[in-house]
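Bit of a strange request maybe. I'm writing a small parser for structure token strings and I need a real example to test against, not something I typed by hand. Could someone generate the tokens for this chain?
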Amino acid sequence: MSQKKALIYCRVSDIKQANVGDGLKSQETRCREHAEANGYDVVMVFPDIITGGGDFLKRTGMVSLLAFMDEHPDEEFVIIFDDLKRFARDRDFHFKLREAFRDRRATLECLNYRFDDSPEGEFVETIFAAQGQLERKQNARQTRQKTEARMKNGYWVHSAPLGYAYKAVKGRGKMLFPDEPVASIVKEAFEGYASGRFGSQAEVTRFCASFPEFPRNGKGKVVQELISKMLTRPIYTGHICSDHYDIHWLKGQHDALISMETFEKVQSRRAGATYAPKRANIGDDFALRGAVACGCCGVALRSSWTKGSTKRYPYYLCQTKGCEAYGKSIPRDKLENEVGEIIKSLQPSKSLLAMAESMFRYIWEARRSQAKDAVASGKQEIHRLEKEISGVLDRIMSASNDTIIRRYEDKVEMLERQKAIMVEKLGKQIEPKGAFDEKLELACKFLSNPWKIWENGTTSARRLVLKLAFTTPIQYYRNEGARTPDLSLPFKALGGTSGCQFCYGARGRNRTTDTRIFN
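Reply from user aminoacidic:
Good idea to test on real output. This should exercise your parser:
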């Protein structure tokens, strides 16, 4: 008598069960022991990593097993599996699968159950199959409930978004944390698009692709579809949103990468609102570009490099056609040194600096009072929004029309979004510890000697000095020199500076300036 041939079928529900606990290998070992004890020749093993519910034809291992039997129609195989639940966890598909094996003249042997084709045996088998289905559905319900509860507690439960990674935290489970350097890349992408630095989503895609650390798809590319999806995800603001679980703008347990303000700007740009892009380069070699105007026509001076026989020379010049100074250049160092002399004169006495400190303290306290009022007003607004949300939810419960319910749900989402924005604004009203002393030190350092910053600072630092010290562009007359512009409020208040009555340069000329150039 020839030895019977056997096929082993093993199944676990997910990868974790396959790797942790060695589920597939354990099942195979038990089945092989059963085959050896009964004198069967194991021809092949067919493993599956998939849930037992639903159509068995979606299981790769089961489809391969049936196909193998079809390739050997003359063989009558014994099909061995560990447990009835490994066979199927759906009542209807359990008996359809039984029929498929019956058509192929296969014998089923289960280590934990004895098949019986009698009416009584079929009844018992039906109960076991239904029990497996019940357990599967109960497990699925329990998983959904746990997932929903964790989401409503502010924990993200799905795949980590770009820029985040999961880390286990004792007593809190797995939580999202910024994943550097990708987190910084994502943050800069959002802020660059919000500010106009990146003119389109395609530019954001190219920016992200310029970093080798940024994740790629299977072909090694950063596709625009991935970036577009990233730019719409509220999770980067530190909030949880899920239509499936009806969660809208819930404050999450993870740290935000961007502010709500930045996120709203990005959504406005994606919806079609435009922002003027930042100027790519306003001349790093010319600190006064945009801050000095031609005294004759009032238009901002341009800057350029002129090539000589042995080296290049930096100049400022007026390029307004019809102006008497049109095309006449001014050496950069000459103009910037004259402006430096004006800035050098802005040095108040120690007594005036002490008065300025008192003024700053008074203004600071006034602003703190305003901030407290803003916090109180913001809390009232949040209370109003919560009350309105509650009212809309009540209307949803009493509504029966699907269209009206969807509109109410959209309204709730909008109100939750407004609430999240307001909560973020309130957070910004909180005064950081020691903030006043830090800001006072910087302010007094600037007021006491802006010349020092001008003399030793970079081009950007020099531009900052000009913006803080003057409210209008500096008017420059080529033959007479620079005329002092209007001083900013702090220097006006400190009228006792060494140069309080400025008579430097073209003091006799009195022309109207175009303040738009400087601001």
